[in-house]
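Page 37, continued from 36.
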């Protein structure tokens, strides 16, 4: 059955791979599943046809036969559960990998998103200068805890898993803040993720869509 995902017709990041279709592409590449991409404009995302797939009018979505999914955590978990390569066989190890997926989107990603919002949408507010360091320190708190847990290990819990795929995808969004580089083992962890052939294929595929197009927005 053909898998179809949606992605930005023109990503605001100009192809840096920061939009969330990259993590879905990466998961599909890791498990060797071919997929097609339907590109959508910002306007089309808010129209009924796309809202029927994604109630919040966002990308990415995932279609496979009569199944439609949204939310990258759920999409990557679906891919990982149906194809070998992203979740361990042992039941407890599998649950721990899924725990890391939730930790990525529920515990580590929120302050990173908050910083992006504060910079891009609230940068002109009078209180912005005072707020930014507070958010940056919330990111540092999480990074320090994650860095302590990762230590010298390559991945969060044994072999590379969907938990690492989600965590690396979340962490790399913080790179432009410079905070990631304050934690050398986390920066190396992200680099290890990005060095995986499946990540490179995913990155190149989204770049092919966006290369040469001026960033949207
Ligand atoms: N929780 C959802 C998920 O994980 O799937 C969040 C989905 C989401 O935020 N989608 C964004 C979107 O569709 C694109 S990825 N936004 C359009 C809208 O809401 O109208 C977020 C994103 C966008 C742009 C960059 N960038 O340019 O750097 C990075 C990340």
């Amino acid at each position: 059955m053909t898998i179809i995902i949606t992605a930005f017709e023109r990503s605001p990041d100009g192809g840096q791979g920061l939009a969330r279709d990259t993590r879905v592409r990466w998961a599909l590449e890791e498990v060797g599943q071919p997929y097609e991409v339907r590109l959508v404009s910002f306007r089309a995302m808010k129209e009924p046809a796309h809202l029927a797939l994604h109630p919040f009018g966002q990308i990415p979505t995932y279609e496979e036969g009569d199944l439609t999914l949204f939310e990258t955590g759920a999409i990557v978990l679906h891919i990982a559960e149906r194809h070998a390569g992203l979740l361990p066989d042992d039941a407890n190890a599998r649950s721990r990998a899924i725990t890391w997926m939730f930790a990525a989107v529920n515990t580590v990603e929120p302050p990173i998103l908050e910083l992006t919002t504060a910079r891009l949408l609230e940068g002109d507010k009078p209180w912005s200068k005072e707020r930014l360091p507070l958010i940056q320190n919330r990111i540092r708190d999480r990074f320090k805890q994650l860095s302590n847990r990762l230590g010298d290990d390559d991945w969060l819990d044994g072999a590379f898993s969907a938990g690492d795929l989600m965590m690396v995808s979340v962490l790399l969004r913080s790179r432009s803040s410079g905070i990631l580089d304050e934690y050398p083992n986390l920066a190396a962890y992200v680099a290890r993720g990005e060095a995986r052939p499946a990540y490179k294929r995913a990155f190149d595929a989204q770049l092919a869509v966006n290369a040469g197009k001026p960033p949207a927005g």
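Residues 91-120 form the longest helix (30 residues). Flag for discussion at group meeting. The domain at 3-85+198-210 is CATH 3.40.30.10 (Glutaredoxin).
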